[in-house]
C-alpha cells in the first residue's frame, strides 16, 4: 500500500512537468455490438458534449476491431486523455478478461486466444495518452451459450502495469453510470479519476484500479496552476528518496510503468538535452532509451542498469 | 464331355488361378505404393506448413509486432499461421489433419496427447531423427501419422518463450503467464503431426486392384472367345464332318461326298489321308466284289 501511495505521489509530481509535445485532444473509442448500440450511442453523445473525438466501432468483427484498436492506440499517443467505452460480451478465462467481438462464436475455451481481444489491450491503448485514460465496459449479454470454463465477467480484472484502470458495469448499471457521465459533462473540469470513483459508487460496477494520476477529460482554461503542483511535490518525494538503494528491479519497473506517456517523453527530452539520447521523443521506452539511460547512469558513475531509480528520475525530470 | 467343354474348363481354371495370383501379388505391391503416395501427400502438407511458418516469421511477424506492448496479434505466431492456413486447406482435403503439438505450448489447445508426447520425447532423445511415421489405431479407425520435430533454432523465438517478464506484455495479457515459457535454444519443444486415415490406403489399394482385375478379366474373356471360335472353325467342325463321313463309309455307304478341309494344317492333312484311305478301301471292296 505504501509503495502504491509513493508511486501515486511520484506519478502526480511527474505529471506536472510534462509539457513536451503535448497534444490537447481528448480521444475516445466506442465499441458496441448489435445489442449495445443504443447504450453506445448515448455514451458517445455525452463524450461529444465533453469535446472528445470518438472513434466508433459498430458490430466490428474480431479482425476489424483489432485494426481499429491499433488505430486508436496511435491516435491516443497523440492526445491528452482517452476514454474507451466497450459494450460487448466480456468473458473471463483463467482470471483474464476477454472481449468477444461480433461474430466470434466459441466452440472451446482456447478459441478465445484467436477470436477475442484481451480487455487489457483496450486499457493499454488508452494508457498511451499523455495523461492517461481509462476503460468503461458494459458486459453485454451473450446470445449463444459459452463453452465450459468460461463465464461472463462479473468483476474488473486485476490491475496490470502499463495499463489504465477498467470500470466494469452490468447492463443494469448503465443508466446510473451514464447519469454520472452526463452530470460531469456539464462541468467545466472533468477529472477522470473522480469520474471513475463516482461511477464506481453505482451498484453493479467494479473498478480495477484507482487512476494513478489526474487525467482531465475537460481541462480548466488556465493550466498555470499545475506548475505549482509540480514544484511542491518533488519535496514530498525527496523524503522518500533515501530508500533508493534498496529498491528492487521489480519496484523500479513498476515505477517506470506507472509513468504517464508525457512523463516518459519529458525523461526522453531530458536525456536528449544531456546528449545521451538520439531517438524519437515518443514516450516509449525502447532499446534506444534503455541505452541512453545506461549512458546517463554511467555518466553519474552509477550502475548502468537501464532502469531509472527514483532519484535519477527526479533529476531527469527537472 | 465334349472337347470344347474340357478345353473351356481347363482354360477357366487357369484364368481363375492367374487372376488370384495377380490379385495377391498386386495387393502387396499396390499397398506399398499407396502408402508411399500418401506419405508423399503428407510431405507436401508438411512443406506447405513450413513455407507458411517461414513466411510468417520472415515477413509478417516483423511487420505486426511493433505494437506488441499494446495488442498482441496471434497472426504473428508461426504456429497459429500454419494451423489456420491448414484449416482452410482442410476444406478441400478433409481426410488430412495437421497439428503442432508441444509439451509446454502457449495455447493449451496445442498440448501434446500421450502418443504425440512420446514421439516428441523420441525426437528430444535423438537429435538426428528428422521424421517418424507410424500407424495409429484409435476409435475412429487407423491412421498413418507422420511427425516432424520443431526445434528452437532462432534467438528471436525466445523473446516470447523464455520468461513471462521478457515476453511482450500484451502477449501475457492474451495467453497468461503459465504456459509456453522456459524454452531453450536448440531444444525440441514440439512436433508437427500430420495424419491421414489408413482407409485411404485401403481405398487406393482397392481402386487399383479393381482396375487390375477388370483389365485381366477382359483379356481372359477375349482369349476365351477367340480360342473358342478358332477351336470350332479349325478343329471341331472338320472333325465332326469327318466323323460323319467315316460313320457312313464304315457302314458301306460310299455315296457320301468326300470332305476336304482347305489349307495345309494337321487337320487338312488328316482329311487328305482319310480320303486316300477311303479311296483305297473303296477299291479293295470293289476288287472283292469283282
Assembly type of the chains comes to heterodimer
Strands ordered across the widest β-sheet of chain A:
2-1-3-7-9-11
What is the 3D shape of chain A? globular
Q: What's the domain count of chain B?
A: 2
For the report, how would you describe the main beta sheet of chain A?
A: 6 strands, mixed
Structural account:
The complex is a heterodimer of chains A (318) and B (290). Chain A is α/β, with parallel strands linked by helices and 318 residues long. Chain A has helices at residues 2-16, 37-50, 62-77, 112-115, 119-126, 174-185, 192-200, 224-240, 249-258, 261-273, 287-299, 310-317; strands at 26-32, 53-58, 81-88, 90-93, 96-99, 117-118, 132-139, 151-152, 166-169, 190-191, 205-207, 216-218. Chain A has 2 domains: 25-218, Rossmann fold; 224-317, no CATH class. Chain A is 44% helix and 17% strand. In chain A, helix 2 packs parallel to helix 6, helix 3 packs parallel to helix 5 (119-126) and helix 6 (174-185) packs antiparallel against helix 7. The two termini of chain A are 27 Å apart. Mean pLDDT of chain A is 82; it is low at 15-21 and 223-244. By secondary structure, chain B is an alpha+beta fold. Chain B has 2 domains: 11-198, no CATH class; 207-289, no CATH class. In chain B, 60% of the residues lie in helices and 12% in strands. Chain B contains 7 helices and 4 strands; from the N terminus they run H-H-E-H-E-E-H-H-E-H-H. In chain B, helix 1 (3-64) runs antiparallel to helix 6 (198-250). The model of chain B has no long low-confidence stretch (mean pLDDT 89). The interface between A and B is medium-sized, with 22 and 19 residues.
Amino acid at each position: 500500500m505504501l509503495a502504491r501511495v509513493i508511486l501515486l505521489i511520484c506519478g502526480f509530481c511527474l505529471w506536472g512537468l510534462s509539457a513536451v509535445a503535448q497534444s490537447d485532444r481528448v480521444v475516445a473509442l466506442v465499441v458496441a455490438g448489435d445489442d449495445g448500440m443504443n447504450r453506445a450511442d448515448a455514451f458517445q453523445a455525452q463524450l461529444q458534449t465533453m469535446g472528445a473525438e470518438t472513434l466508433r466501432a459498430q458490430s466490428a468483427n474480431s479482425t476489424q476491431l483489432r485494426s481499429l484498436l491499433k488505430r486508436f492506440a496511435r491516435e491516443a499517443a497523440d492526445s491528452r486523455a482517452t476514454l474507451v467505452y466497450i459494450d460487448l460480451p466480456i468473458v473471463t478465462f483463467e482470471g483474464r478478461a476477454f472481449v468477444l467481438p461480433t461474430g466470434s462464436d466459441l466452440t472451446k475455451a482456447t478459441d478465445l486466444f484467436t477470436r477475442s481481444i484481451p480487455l487489457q489491450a483496450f486499457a493499454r491503448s488508452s494508457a498511451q495518452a499523455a495523461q492517461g485514460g481509462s476503460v468503461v465496459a458494459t458486459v453485454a449479454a451473450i446470445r449463444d451459450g459459452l463453452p465450459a470454463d468460461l463465464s461472463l465477467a462479473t468483476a474488473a480484472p486485476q490491475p496490470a502495469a502499463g495499463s489504465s484502470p477498467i470500470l466494469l458495469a452490468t447492463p443494469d448499471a448503465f443508466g446510473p453510470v451514464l447519469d454520472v457521465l452526463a452530470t460531469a459533462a456539464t462541468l467545466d473540469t472533468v477529472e477522470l479519476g473522480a469520474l471513475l470513483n463516482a461511477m464506481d459508487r453505482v451498484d453493479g460496477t467494479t473498478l480495477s484500479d484507482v487512476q494513478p494520476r489526474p487525467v482531465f477529460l475537460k481541462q480548466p482554461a488556465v493550466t498555470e496552476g499545475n506548475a505549482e503542483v509540480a514544484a511542491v511535490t518533488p519535496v514530498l518525494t525527496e523524503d522518500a528518496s533515501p530508500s533508493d538503494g534498496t529498491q528492487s528491479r521489480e519496484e523500479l519497473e513498476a515505477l517506470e510503468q506507472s509513468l504517464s506517456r508525457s512523463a516518459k517523453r519529458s525523461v526522453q527530452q531530458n536525456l536528449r538535452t544531456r546528449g545521451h539520447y538520439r531517438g524519437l521523443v515518443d514516450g516509449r521506452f525502447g532499446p534506444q532509451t534503455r541505452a541512453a539511460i545506461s549512458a546517463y547512469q554511467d555518466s553519474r558513475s552509477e550502475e548502468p542498469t537501464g532502469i531509472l531509480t527514483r532519484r535519477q528520475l527526479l533529476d531527469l525530470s527537472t | 464331355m465334349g472337347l470344347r467343354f474340357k478345353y473351356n474348363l481347363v482354360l477357366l481354371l487357369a484364368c481363375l488361378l492367374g487372376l488370384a495370383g495377380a490379385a495377391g501379388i498386386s495387393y502387396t505391391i499396390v499397398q506399398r505404393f499407396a502408402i508411399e503416395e500418401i506419405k508423399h501427400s503428407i510431405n507436401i502438407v508438411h512443406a506447405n506448413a513450413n513455407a507458411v511458418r517461414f513466411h510468417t516469421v520472415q515477413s509478417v511477424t516483423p511487420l505486426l509486432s511493433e505494437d506488441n506492448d499494446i495488442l498482441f496479434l496471434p497472426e504473428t505466431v508461426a504456429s497459429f499461421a500454419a494451423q489456420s492456413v491448414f484449416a482452410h486447406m482442410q476444406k478441400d482435403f478433409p481426410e488430412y489433419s495437421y497439428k503442432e503439438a508441444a509439451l509446454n505450448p502457449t495455447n493449451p489447445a496445442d498440448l501434446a496427447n500421450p502418443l504425440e508426447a512420446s514421439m516428441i520425447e523420441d525426437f528430444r532423445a535423438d537429435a538426428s531423427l528428422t521424421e517418424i511415421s507410424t500407424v495409429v489405431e484409435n476409435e475412429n479407425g487407423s491412421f498413418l501419422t507422420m511427425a516432424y520435430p520443431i526445434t528452437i533454432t532462432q534467438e528471436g523465438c525466445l523473446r516470447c518463450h523464455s520468461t513471462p517478464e521478457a515476453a511482450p506484455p500484451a502477449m501475457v495479457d492474451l495467453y497468461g503467464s503459465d504456459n509456453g515459457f522456459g524454452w531453450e535454444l536448440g531444444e525440441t519443444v514440439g512436433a508437427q503431426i500430420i495424419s491421414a486415415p489408413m482407409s485411404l490406403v485401403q481405398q487406393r489399394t482397392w481402386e487399383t486392384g479393381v482396375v487390375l482385375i477388370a483389365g485381366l478379366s477382359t483379356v481372359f474373356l477375349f482369349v476365351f472367345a477367340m480360342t473358342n471360335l478358332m477351336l470350332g472353325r479349325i478343329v471341331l467342325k472338320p472333325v465332326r464332318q469327318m466323323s460323319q463321313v467315316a460313320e457312313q463309309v464304315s457302314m458301306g455307304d460310299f455315296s457320301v461326298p468326300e470332305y476336304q478341309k482347305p489349307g495345309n494344317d494337321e487337320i487338312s492333312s488328316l482329311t487328305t489321308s482319310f480320303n486316300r484311305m477311303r479311296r483305297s478301301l473303296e477299291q479293295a471292296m470293289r476288287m472283292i466284289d469283282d
